[in-house]
What we know:
Elements: E1 19-25, H1 32-43, H2 47-60, E2 62-69, H3 70-87, E3 92-97
Antiparallel strand pairs: 1-2, 1-3
Helix pairs in contact: 1-2
Amino acid sequence: MTLADPKAKEKVKLKAPKLYKVLLYNDDYTSMDFVVAVIEKVFYKTEEEATQIMLSVHEKGRGICGEYTAEVAETKVHIVHEFSQNAGYPLLCTMEEV
């Protein structure tokens, strides 16, 4: 095995990773306060940002919490479901490609 010549200039094209938006969906059981708290804790949003996202969820049926790489988005969806289940709420969270 030989090492590449460090003086040789090789162009490497890197693709940006695909991004996924993480969405929360409205339901008739999850409290607005809980949704705001989840958005603040899981997505690191300010109270004002979290409230705006929660209002979108409430009024439009869903709200976008952020855009992340696949692994990060999957983790956030899992954490939201875990928080919701532990609190007794059916809050639905999904991810979809941007």
